[in-house]
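To: structure subgroup
Subject: Chain for Friday's discussion

All,

I'm putting the inputs and outputs inline so they're searchable in the archive.
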Amino acid sequence: MSINRRHFLGGSAALTGAAVLGYPAAAADAIKLGSVLDSSGIFDAYGKPMDMAMRLAVADINNAGGLLGRPIEVVAYDTQSDMALYSQYAQQLTREDQVDVVHGGILSASREAIRQILRKSGTLYFYNVLYEGGVCDRNIFINGVTPAQQVEALVPYAMNKVGARTVYILAADYNYGQITAKWIQKYVGDNGGETVSVDFFPLDVSDFGSTIAKIQSTAPDLVIAPLVGGAHLSFFRQWAAAGMKARIPLASTTLGVGNEHKVLTADEGNGIMVAYNYSQELDTPKNAEFKRKWAAAYGDDTAIHEIAVSNYQGVLTWAAAVREAGSLERDSVVAALETGISVQGPGGTVTVDPRTHHAVLDVHLMEIENQGMTVIDTLPRRQPIDTQAVCDLEANPDDNQQYEIEI
């Protein structure tokens, strides 16, 4: 999503941040943290800030003396938004680099491309992105919000705010969009509404003219749009240009995750309703501290977004478990995580759910305003109840699949 580039980076900071942040030189006793992300290509607006956040977390840890008296060395690979490179780099991280942990993946497809490789090699894996839920695997820990944490909060808020009874859904045509659309339909029904249509769009679609005409004729009370990526951002522009923004309210489960709202004008974005674990507008000491550190490292804080913060919080969670375990040995770290370990991050308290290895998170109801996300309300410590319905790693520690949760 190169259209967002000016908001994210000055030069190539994400890939050369080591010099900026003063990382220790590679040492024989260094702990190796592996990273595999789309730092270039069509998903770079997600991947670059995630890379920056990961490096900032490592710098925080190293500046405080490292882990177990040892520095952390980052071993990072850019997949260039090519799914085939995920498998290649995952094998390189485990076989050649012999890293102690991997934080990485953005799309669900990228997670599934590397999850089994890391499990087979015994390399602990953190996936720090909001997703559709259902992954059950003792080798993975997931720090992003799931639909039951996010959609269950957003749908009733949006419906009640605008008095909606009928809802039209526009979703990205891959695993996340298809499953999230089902969750939206469930919560629309649970709140006394009706889904009048669900339309799916490949990630490269950028012309929504016929869809907007269809919505005009259907005349729903509310549109909810789990659309993904730079091409889909065109919908929000075309919606406003068609004069629809003043006629039918919008909500989204994805807009702003990659700072897309900062590319939209105020006229295009204002009033769109979202719900995430993080907003730059959160008025907390932890967020203020985080933004100060980011600005000191990278010049300003404009690149920060939801999944960058999830990546930062994921690294802190792993580090807390290593300290608790007093070891890097995978099973010892997993056991420490399974005590329900918590960290305080920019988005609030993050707690590991031992049954599912997902995070218990605060979710903030927000509205886009002047290219920011104004916090309306905070719903604390939301459980991943969708994944809890299908995954119990305490009872079944050898489970290894992504369940399609019955909705």
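Points worth raising on Friday:
The chain has two domains: 2-145+282-361+386-402, 147-276.
The radius of gyration is 20 Å.

D.
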